[in-house]
Specification:
It is a single chain. The protein has helices at about 15-35, 40-70, and strands spanning about 1-5, 10-15. With about 70 residues, the protein is mainly α. The chain has a two-stranded antiparallel sheet. Strand 1 (about 1-5) and strand 2 form a beta hairpin. The longest helix is centred in the C-terminal third of the chain and has 32 residues, at about 40-70. The protein is extended. The relative contact order is 0.10.
Length: about 70
């Protein structure tokens, strides 16, 4: 995982796919134990969205590769 600072002072995190999946699982477990955590629920929602986008991009790339080799 890499954490970068933007010029405006915000932080950006870059993760591998494995790190992203572990983060999603950890947030899911935390919510199961503490369902009243609104912050964790919002974080999980964003992490899940990013993971879904990553999976869709991987599927599109696989389809493009398979159709170009056919």
């Amino acid at each position: 995982m890499q954490i970068m600072q933007t010029p405006s002072g915000d932080s950006v995190v870059a993760m591998t796919a494995a790190e992203l999946l572990m983060t999603e699982q950890a947030l899911s477990r935390y919510i199961l134990e503490k369902p009243d955590s609104n912050l964790t629920a919002r974080m999980l929602s964003k992490v899940s969205r990013v993971n879904e986008e990553r999976e869709a991009q991987m599927e599109e790339e696989a389809e493009a590769t398979s159709s170009s080799t056919s």
